[in-house]
Specification:
Blueprint: H1 2-21, E1 37-39, E2 45-47, H2 48-51, E3 56-62, H3 67-82, E4 87-94, H4 98-108, E5 113-117, H5 121-125, E6 133-137, E7 143-147, H6 150-156
Length: about 160
């Protein structure tokens, strides 16, 4: 029985080491963005690689229960409208139900496309550990900005 517990402890330690080595660091500025395809609330499929053929993309990871996410919607709406010719803003809700997200979108008056990462795979690949998280990506699929504020991003990245 003692050897079982020793093996269990060794396995747990190995899993911890592997998860750290596997890249717990977020995808930062200058790194390549991960492609994904998700569906908007209206059923349209959005593929990052397709969007980048014509525009830069700003991803805004959010959740309906996050007060800062709701508070940031007016600034994100303004940014989206101001740079619509060259930038596509995509709100990515992380693992919530479609009715809940639709209600949030209506209540906060979001004026940009919203998709739901219902499995959390996209958030996981981008190593999202807090929300809101804003990621700007150029047409060459390189991350230009990673932070928590559309306003801060606009100050730091030339659009």
């Amino acid at each position: 029985m003692k050897s079982f517990y020793i093996k269990l402890i060794i396995c747990a330690a190995m899993l911890g080491i592997l998860s750290t080595v596997a890249g717990a660091a977020p995808i930062g500025v200058g790194k390549e963005a991960f492609d994904f395809t998700l569906e908007t609330l209206s059923g349209q499929k959005i593929a990052l690689s397709e969007e980048l053929k014509t525009k830069r993309v700003v991803l805004v990871f959010f959740a309906t229960w996050c007060p800062h996410c709701g508070a940031s919607v007016p600034a994100t709406n303004t940014f989206s409208k101001k740079y619509a010719a060259g930038v596509r803003v995509i709100g990515i809700d992380v693992q919530e139900s479609k009715p809940k997200v639709e209600d949030f979108v209506k209540r906060t008056k979001m004026a940009y496309d919203v998709v739901i990462d219902d499995t959390g795979v996209v958030a996981s690949r981008y190593r999202i550990s807090g929300i809101p998280t804003v990621i700007a990506i150029d047409k060459n699929n390189k991350v230009l900005y990673r932070g928590t504020s559309i306003t801060d991003m606009e100050k730091r990245v030339e659009f």
